[in-house]
Amino acid sequence: MESSGTVGSGRGTSVVVSFACPDEATGISTAALTRLLDASERARLTRIVSAAVSRQFLVAHALLRVSLSRHLAIPPAEWRFARSHTGRPVISGPVEPTSLSFSLTHTSGLVMCAVSDDHTVGIDAERIDAEANFALLVPQVLSPHEASLWTAADVSSRAKRFHQLWALKESLLKAAGLGLRMAPSRISFELAEGSPPSAERLPEELGSVDDWSFFVSEPTPAHACALAVKAPSFDFARVEWREVSTEELVESALGRFDEVVLAGAAHASVNPTNSRVADRCL
What is the extent of the structural domain holding 180? Predict the structure, then answer.
């Protein structure tokens, strides 16, 4: 699932991005993590045919629950989710929705979750595929401005640049609650090496380009990640990057969440480009 939603009131003012490697999940750990899911999530899990995608879904949803519980003292298995009228995932219990914003993404080899106390967030991760059908994808995903710059770029950098732009657009659309109901080619970004990305043009439905801040990272050399925050000139130094192991998620599933929260403090503020996940999720 790739999603964003809002609920509750938490602690702190930064955005916390948690990430994990779904491929670490074994038969024993998947059985434990399934205990965190509600009946609806379990039903969706059983309908997934691919074992790899099933692990992504399971680890991503367990990660979301544990991440939300770090902000509000609620056991991870007690969270309940519903869909808004636009299809955006929202918290339906056990607390009344207020201001806690969350976003979830999973792709081959990586799951990520962003949670913020006071800003709407969207996150997306894409596995970089140098063999993608760019002749088909570029007109569908990139704006004419982006496509012209992409075509002029060095061939060796095109795959990474394309997936960064794709992740930026999905992170923004998820934060706005639109998903892929808006053609990504209607959104245009400036993406220059060494500078933070910025929106060059946004459709009216997304507001002003000055309403948003964006960040790109490479959690592993094989992945492009983008984070959208609905706040002007957001200081991305306030983002905490938290690496979460499958063992931590299993401990939460087994009811030792308080111990996991305390131990998890040691994983805060890791460098997303220099982490153990970077070695394990390739």
Answer: 3-280
Q: What band does 248 get if pLDDT is binned at 50, 70 and 90?
A: confident
HSE at residue 151, side-chain half, CA atoms within 13 A, is: 11
Which residue carries 């939460």 as its tokens?
252
Q: How far is 55 from 193, CA to CA, in rounded Å?
A: 34
Phi/psi region, residue 230 (left: phi>0; alpha: psi -120 to 50; beta: rest), is beta
**Count of structural domains, the chain:** 1
Q: Is 65 helix (H, G, I), strand (E, B) or coil?
A: helix
The yes-or-no verdict on residue 72 having pLDDT over 90 is no
Q: Is 179 exposed, middle or buried (0-12, 13-18, 19+ CB in 10 A)?
A: middle
DSSP 157-219: HHHHHHHHHHHHHHHHHHHTT-TTSS-GGG-EEE--TTS--EEEE--GGG--GGG-EEEEE-S
Q: How far apart are CA 246 and CA 22, in angstroms?
A: 8
Encoded tokens for 67: 């991440």
Q: What is the CATH number of the domain that holds 253?
A: 3.90.470.20
What pLDDT sits at residue 9?
A: 38
Q: Which residue has the higher pLDDT, 93 or 126?
A: 126
* Closest C-alpha to 173, from 131, 148, 140, 202: 202
273 pLDDT above the threshold of 70: no
